[in-house]
Amino acid sequence: MVDRYQRFAATGFGGFVTKRLGLPRPPHLYRHSPENPRSPGPVLLATTEDATVTGALHAILAEGGTPVHTCTSPDPTPDEPQEPGSLILDATGITETTQLCTLHRLLGPRVRSLRAGGRVLVVGTPATDCRTLGAAVAQRSLEGFTRALAKELRMGATVNLIYVPAQAPTTAASTVRFLVSDRSAYVSGQTLHLSETTQSTNTEPPTPPIAEVAPLADTVAVVTGAARGIGATIAETAARDGAQVLCIDVPHAGAHLADTATRVGGQALELDITEDDAPQRIVAAARHHFGRLDVMVHNAGITRDKTLARMSAQQWDAVLSVNLLAAQRITERLVDPTDPVLGPGGRVVCTSSISGIAGNAGQTNYSTSKAGLIGLVTALAPTAAERGATVNAIAPGFIETPMTEAMPLLVREAGRRMNSLRQGGTPQDVAEAVCYLADPGTGGVNGQVLRVCGQSLIGA
């Protein structure tokens, strides 16, 4: 979809007008391009004397060939990169509230030097690793800091926070790479809590990713709602990253579904996921075509918008059946102890919504279903961890799709501008986040909800 206001604001005259009138000025977002990828570096890694994961962060970045400069001084030095692509602060050494001044001292003098579309990543200590009250208070303060800083930066820069266990910092590898790359262009102001990768004692450990350029190589991904829109983009991105893909959608979308499957070199399954035998048919199709199922992406969803007083029972039931109950039944089949489908390294990714976090007028059914998916993720995370698998959700904000294009003009413009990046996201932004969570290397992220919303002001 075309954002005409953004195009206008990007012109010389449009920039002058919007600045004089105090109107939003959407920045250009640098999104990942396989043909011409941008390096996340040079990286300026700021750290304190007692920080615990600096060495691991340096190794993670250097492994991909990214130049890293480590600094400990509040004052920039002549040998620092003049225009870093990423600023990373290892804040794990902050163990008292009086040390929070480190945030200002180390990042304050440097954020203006960040290149356009740059990344700021703050790394903290999980609450479970905090040994004192002061440490717990200080580390929780990092969330307010990152959210506020994300609203201050311009030129498409983003800020995010991850809490990394000191005993297992390597679980952060795929997360660090994602958040400092252009794959995370529409992810800002977010917090992820990482944990140790939990593996079942009765199974072999998960296979690590083959390579950063093909993190889903040798995996089988199933994507529902794959005929068009976001689902088709997820299927294409998963295939780009090396996965074999089983594309699923309703029979009346069969022609579009076949087109998607052909583009990604995968298989198509025409199926109404609300049917009683849908879970069994999905498992059977994945095993028939590929021998197994590694990644389950619950993307299928519908809307039937009305205020509660005007909503029919059929409209309520349809949305709950497709968006929530089908995903619940399919996932229960995948983790059935009598015939488990997901093994070590297995991934379940649910497409929730910020409507499931903040609610939305006229969408009580939709918001209920999307909040239920978050409940599914939270409830099943321990079960998934027992077998070395993960279950997570993404929560998109305003995404440019035919559905949002059909919105009334003022509603559409409000949705686009009410976030820190002053624009809507794209289906590719959603797909990149899904594939990050599907990555075999993202075993330290479990039971999490990642908002892909440009730091939407709704539900913030």
Secondary structure elements and their pairing?
Blueprint: H1 4-9, H2 12-21, E1 43-47, H3 54-63, E2 68-71, E3 86-90, H4 101-107, E4 119-124, H5 133-152, E5 158-163, H6 173-179, E6 190-193, E7 220-224, H7 229-240, E8 244-249, H8 254-264, E9 267-270, H9 278-290, E10 295-298, H10 313-334, E11 347-351, H11 355-358, H12 364-386, E12 390-396, H13 402-405, H14 409-417, H15 427-438, E13 449-452
Parallel strand pairs: 1-2, 1-3, 3-4, 4-5, 5-6, 7-8, 7-10, 8-9, 10-11, 11-12, 12-13
CATH topology of the largest domain: Rossmann fold
The number of strands is 13
Helix content: 25-40%
- CATH-level-2 architecture of the largest domain: 3-Layer(aba) Sandwich
Q: What oligomeric state is this? A: single chain
Mean pLDDT: 91
Strand content: 5-15%
Shape: globular
Count of discrete domains: 2
Task: Provide the structure class.
Answer: alpha/beta
CATH superfamily of the largest domain: NAD(P)-binding Rossmann-like Domain
What summary fits the major beta sheet?
7 strands, parallel
Instruction: Strand order, main sheet: write it out.
Output: 9-8-7-10-11-12-13
Q: For the CA atoms, what is the radius of gyration?
A: 22 Å
Span from first to last CA?
Answer: 25 Å
Give the SSE string.
HHEHEEHEHEHEEHEHEHEHEHHEHHHE
CATH class category name of the largest domain: Alpha Beta
Contiguous helical run count = 15
Poorly predicted spans: 199-211
GO molecular function, one term: 3-oxoacyl-[acyl-carrier-protein] reductase (NADPH) activity
Organism: Lipingzhangella rawalii
Protein name: 3-oxoacyl-ACP reductase
EC number: 1.1.1.100
